[in-house]
Amino acid sequence: MSADSPPLRTEQPPFTGRTTKEWQAADAAHFLHPFTDHQALATKGVRVITRGEGVYVWDSDGQRILDAMSGLWCVNVGYGQEALIEAATQQMRTLPYYNAFFQTTTPAATALAERLAARTPAQFRHVFFCGSGSEANDTVIRLVRRYWDVMGQAQRKVIVSRLNAYHGSTMAAASLGGMAAMHAQGDLPIPGIVHIDQPHYWAHREGAAKDLGREEFGLLAAHWLEEKILAIGADKVAAFIGEPVQGAGGVIVPPSTYWPEIQRICDRHGILLVSDEVVCGFGRTGRWWGCEAFGSKPDLITFAKGVTSGYVPLGGVMVGERMARVLIEQGGEFEHGYTYSGHPVACAVGLANLDVIERQDLVTRVREDTGPYLAQQLAQLMEHPMVGEVQSCGLMAAVQLCRNVPLREAFAPEIAIGMVCRKHCFDNGLVMRAVGDRMIVAPPLVITRAQIDEMFGLVRQALDRTHAEAHAAGWLAR
Ligand SMILES: *Cc1c(COP(=O)(O)O)cnc(C)c1O
């Protein structure tokens, strides 16, 4: 705004004073969106989401949308949970902010640390708070390297991650991630981070996994880690990091053999294991933690998203006792921290969020009721002529689209069939995400069976419309 332009109206929630077109114009003029082609969005016009309730959101035209992505994998307790709203309001009124740097804390931060220590696997008693998943994974790099320094093995610096992993978007977190498009912008990865291939059975169907069963392939994929460790020299490798189930990579559920074998390899070479639970944590898989669902015993767990159900930003790193004891007793000051480490409003919301998850027994419900029900509905999609594979774990699921199912043949990449399908979803009142040709869902953990039925009704409609469009355009196999 230039000095002589009139002052903008002061607006407050619920922001009902402007039309969709007005919001779109203001947005195109000023808001650079994350992971967005700005020019393409400005041409099309942004969708303005104005409110939410339960598993639904509404846009500025009044359309109700079933949010099968929980916002961005985070709104696990659904929209409009009074307990979280109340906790934030009370904490803001009492003490909206205080830091934890100079030998101070707030009751909210300490209480959440205590609560998380009780809710995580037995090896965890300490937490380092930050503001997001990216910051949590940056913190991992600093913690891991500091630990090996203190241990007198400063040469152990290399962190092994995986292609198509997502660990966040800061320089370090994007480097840990294995997203080629991200690495291509900004000279990433930074030094000291290397990648092995992912345990993605479908993606390797014509290559490494050809003629192997899923479980055999899981062992093979785990051994890629050992090959990499031996190539680098085990005494130079600091840690391995992975998501129990790759989320943004397309809900890649690993074979059950994979994580136990990864654990054995890390143990054999004395390498730290980091479980990025930003998506999998807090019940998404039907266990509190993905590492519990898949059988690993990590030294570090990173979390964010589901810790507050996305109501306010919060992230953190659970630090296992093997590392915590060394850092506390021999490490002296750890030169790292964020202004918002242990933000009291975020921590108060985190506590209220844990209350809701526990009171409603959401983790058990996902494991024993809604998760299996979703899997059952999902399996029926295999009858669809365009579905090559379905995969799920708890309340996260993937539907692999393909051009020729018997031949497992992919659509030409320039068709971007996932984006075609996603558009039909949105037009139908469903948020489903496309990762290449893989459609994914991760609905709020409070979703009911009836709402799962509704979701699959919308998914089927979107698949049918995508199929009709593909047929008309001649994209399908003859
Ligand atoms: C979203 C995500 C992150 C990054 O979290 P931000 O809060 O966006 O920085 C890290 N790891 C995984 C697995 C994620 O899904």
UniProtKB/TrEMBL annotation:
Any one GO cellular component localisation term in the record: cytosol
Keyword Transferase in record: yes
Cofactor(s) listed in the protein's UniProt record: pyridoxal 5'-phosphate
Record keywords: Aminotransferase, Pyridoxal phosphate, Transferase
GO molecular function: pyridoxal phosphate binding; transaminase activity
Highest taxon listed in the record's lineage: Bacteria
Similarity remark: Belongs to the class-III pyridoxal-phosphate-dependent aminotransferase family.
Protein name stated in the entry: Aspartate aminotransferase family protein
